[in-house]
Amino acid sequence: MKVVIVSTGDIGGGFWAAYRLHKALLRAGIESIMLVQDKSSGDPTVATVKTKFSKCINSIKASIDGLPVKFYKGRSKTLFSPSWLGFSDVVQVVNDLNPDIVHLHWVCGGMLNIKNISKINAPIVWSLHDMWPFTGGCHYDESCNRYKKECGECKVLNSSNQKDLSSNIWKKKSQVFDKISNMTIIGLSSWLNQCSKESSLLNKYPHYNIPNPIDTNEFRPFDRNESRKIWNLPLDKKIILFGAMSATSDPRKGFLELSKALKILKRKDVELVIFGSNKPLNDDGFSFKVNYTGHLYDRVSLMSLYNAVDVMVVPSLQENLSNAIMESMACGTPVVGFDIGGNSDMVEHKVNGYLAKPYSENDLKDGIEWILSNEKYDDLRVKCRKKTLDSFDSILVANRYINLYKDVLE
Fold first, then answer.
1. CA nearest neighbour of 13 among 403, 386, 220, 320
2. Is there a single domain that holds both residue 250 and residue 196?
3. With 0-12 CB in 10 A as exposed, 13-18 as middle and 19+ as buried, what is 68?
């Protein structure tokens, strides 16, 4: 069986999930080829589109693709992708590889033109990393729910026009999906799977809930004191971790809510570590030390950082299936987050972590305190690790995909 995994990138953010699945499929004996626009790894099993024109234009594709959004001056900071570029070579490369299955992942940033998706010859499996495949362009809908009928009057674009860019993109997607009969949708979280089932664009396709995989040999428990020495963190403090891509600048990641929660936390024995962001020029307003690591791209650094802290806080306002939660739990570090999106697929309230009432800074603070003061903290760590081994280990997830591929081909 030959599978082509299509993703805009191979390293960083949600790209990690596609790359981990690709490697797990190879270990399981599947002929997997990962095709990306932006290759960051040196992995020879990851291919790129190699035409001269592609090489010249790749660096500016995302900027060009986003030009129509610039006309909406009052738009929010939520990512919005028109995916209108018409000079993609990706589909031709995919078809030339003659795969049995084409497995799409996150394909925005100029990777795929919407219209080109219908030109893929092989059966399509599409893992949803966010809401973009079934919306009029936003990656998260900020709870507007307009994807259930038709988009327009887009909340993300701050538009009051029914015939706005989101409506135009929704209609293009509708026309394209009408031409595709053999497509299977994967909701990585139970929440996103249900959203897609209720969407006007994808509700006619078969849906399955299969999570992201994680290599539990790469992300594993490690000595805490040694980890703290690596990061020059104090041994006598309770360390709180927060981090994501654009950790402090993307409102959806919940840094504002976390800041409010930490400012009412009645503890003097804590420090905060933030990855995915650099130290700001202005004072952050916290009464305790804040350590900024900047952006982390290698798994060894991430693994040691998760092991160096007492609790990971993921206060996202909308979230599919957070890699940060899964990675932290695989290392045995409990997580606090809001009870939204796919968080409950991983965090079991007061069993291996804490799910706070949505958007309540007080309950978020209570969750952090519950973890830091827990008399059975070591038991929490064991249960975190067990959850990832039982539900998300890359071997288990790869086998679920292999069985799905076989069903699709039959």
1. 320
2. no
3. middle
Q: What is the rounded CA–CA span in Å between residue 11 and residue 44? A: 14
What does pTM read for this prediction? 0.92
* Amino acid, res. 99: P
Single out the residue of 371, 393, 81 nearest to residue 238, CA to CA.
371
Q: Measured between alpha carbons, how far is 329 from 312 in angstroms, rounded to an integer?
A: 9
What DSSP state is assigned to residue 119?
Answer: G
**Count of structural domains, the chain:** 2
- Tell me the DSSP string of 26-82: HHTT-EEEEEEEE--S--TTEEE---HHHHHHHHHHHHHHTGGGGG-TT--SS-B--
Q: Is residue 218 part of a domain?
A: no
> Are 268 and 375 members of one domain?
yes
CATH number, domain with residue 86: 3.40.50.2000
Q: What is the pLDDT of residues 251-300, one digit of tens each?
A: 899 999 999 999 999 898 999 999 988 887 776 778 899 999 988 878 89
- pLDDT tens per residue across span 312-367: 999 999 999 999 999 999 999 999 999 999 999 999 999 999 999 999 999 999 99
Residue 160 lies in a domain: yes
Given a contact cutoff of 8 angstroms between Cβ atoms, the answer to whether 180 and 116 are in contact is no
Specify whether 259 is located in the same domain as 201. Answer: no
Q: Which residue has the tokens 């695989």?
A: 330
Whether the CB-CB separation of 83 and 112 falls below 8 Å is answered with yes
Per the structure, the complete domain to which residue 288 belongs is given by 224-391
In this structure, is residue 21 part of a structural domain?
Answer: yes
State the Cα–Cα distance between residues 153 and 72, nearest whole angstrom. 12
Distance CA 147, CA 130 (A): 13
Burial of 77 (0-12, 13-18, 19+ CB in 10 A): exposed
Residue 407: CA count within 13 A, CB half-sphere: 12
